Every structure is written in structure tokens, then in C-alpha cells.
Amino acid sequence: MDANLLLDARARVLADLTARQLATATAVSALDEACESRQWWADQWPAGADYVAGLVAQDVQDALFETAGRWPLCLDCASGPVHSLYIQPDLGGPDPVWVCEETGAVAAALGFLHRR
Known about the structure:
Helix content is 46%, strand content 10%.
């Protein structure tokens, strides 16, 4: 497996964590664990390379739910309950994007979340 694949996934998720001011030691540890886990997965299924970045993002999102709560939150909806964004397509690729769970609108490509 190409090491750049995981470096790219890590950089994209870290950019989104940073944009939402959640690049804490706990979050970065969760990111590193997700990358390590997905490296094994990608080694087993080389044809799944397009899915790695989105799957790493989903893994981090799941890990942070236990410690930090929902991440990333949707910042585009002004009304309604607090809700999250999720990675689409479900398997994480190709070309993963963050989507509002309420409206289904694309908020940003993975790695390009904005601050507010």
C-alpha cells in the first residue's frame, strides 16, 4: 500500500479537526489509531484505496463521540436541534464529503471544513 494514501487521509482529517478547534491530544490519538487500523485494511484490500480517507474520518468521528461528543457539528443550519455532519458516500469514497444529517446538503469536501 502507498504510504501517501494514509498521509493524505491523516492530513485531511487533521485539517478538519483543526478547523473546528478539536485537534486535541485525544483527537489526534484517535486519528493516529484510525490510520493504523486502516493501513491494515488497505493492505488487505488494495482496490479500496479510494475509500481510506473517508473511512478514517468516520473512524475518528466514532471515536470522538465517546469523549468529545458529536463532531463535526453542522454550522450551516441556523435553526433546529444541534446535529452533525457525516461522510458521504457511506463507504467513505471516492471523493468523500461532509453532509448535513438534517438537510442532506454538502457542507465541504473532506479536509475543507470551515470555521465559524
